Please model this.
Amino acid sequence: MAASAAPEYVERIVIENCSIATVDADDTEYASGHVVVAGNRIESVGAGRARRGLENVVRRIDGTGHLATPGLINTHHHFYQWITRGLATDHNLFDWLVALYPTWARIDEPMVRAAAQGSLAMMARGGVTTAMDHHYVYPRGSGDLSGAIIGAARDMGVRFTLARGSMDRSAKDGGLPPDFAVETLDGALAGTEATIDAHHDASFDSMTQVAAAPCSPFSISNELLRQGAQLARRKGVRMHTHGSETVEEEKFCHELFGMGPTDYFESTGWLGDDVWMAHCVHMNDSDIAAFARTGTGVAHCPSSNARLAAGIARVPDMLAAGVPVGLGVDGTASNESGELHTELRNALLINRLGAHREKALNARQALRLGTYGGAQVLGRADQIGSLEPGKLADLVLWKLDTLAHASIADPVTALVFGAAAPVTLSLVNGEPVVEDSHLITADEDTIARVTRDEARRLARIAAGA
Model:
């Protein structure tokens, strides 16, 4: 992996006496080991204690009773939905969208920033070190929404990918969004390019990256897909969209395009190793083979899929075929908890309800989905997603010696099968973001108050529209 030369003076953090799941290619684990962080890189990982005589050690942590893992990586989310949680709770996807689009179309910059803060805070305090937001609602005159989201992530201290979304197929053109909720084709493309130019950082230790992300087949035109792909590849950024989420979407694609979602995406340039799609619940063998052949990735969102009665994605079959798969929270209007660490457990349990039953996923596969799998999907597997020397210092120390986990001998089983584990320490780029289950980069009470106020303001505006 590419790594810049270490500076002459570098501060070190030493974590010792903890269990370690590296999630490297060999799934190396240590019952009691150490991690040394030097600056923003992992310097060493191994069994036993760190070597003596290390210079510039500014902090030593006794990890007894803890498990160290790579930081969790979220691959699909809609932050703005934080301020519309708990609505349309008994709807399928299409009915849910129709119910909520009129409210979402009234969002503005203060609302979006507050919602981003709430979404980021819930993820970060639960072990997420790399977040992602697919934002696709840009009402006219609403302000700098992309800048607000990126600013919130920067202030929270997490690594971040903004998937700059867009919609140009409204109800009058046979789509689902109301007419006033979409952009023009030219406006969407120009907005995406401007966001890439202003914010995308392709460097090894980048904290902010941008992807091109038209929303979904039922809210975008063929041209937005085609030209969006051309724009992304010209700019050298990744591509993201929703795909094969529901049977209604599959029917929509057959009726409108004369083919299923995967064939439609391939016809518009939207399969490739620079692409990842959210959900992919309704995939046949041919679809999975096409994703594997092209290296197209998947963001698996088990809780949202269950909340909206979308179905069970064929994750075991995707993994067996070689499809890159990560985990996603999805928007908090369809996953009100807003947490990714609970998705480790939900991915394992929900997939065991499918055809493979108890053989579907095990604890270590679930952890890999939430770490290295996510890094693959975001195109950053050489930088994050596993605990290996030279990689960026994004890691989590989970406390497993409390009542909730005390009688589970295997720490990875405890983390995945057990209750949500407290986070004693979360490092992003070598910097603490969470200490003893509390955010140190933001005030949770202030975020709760502001997001509550903005949710009420949005509800009043939508009611008077």
Notes: The longest strand covers residues 12-21. The two ends are 53 Å apart (CA to CA).
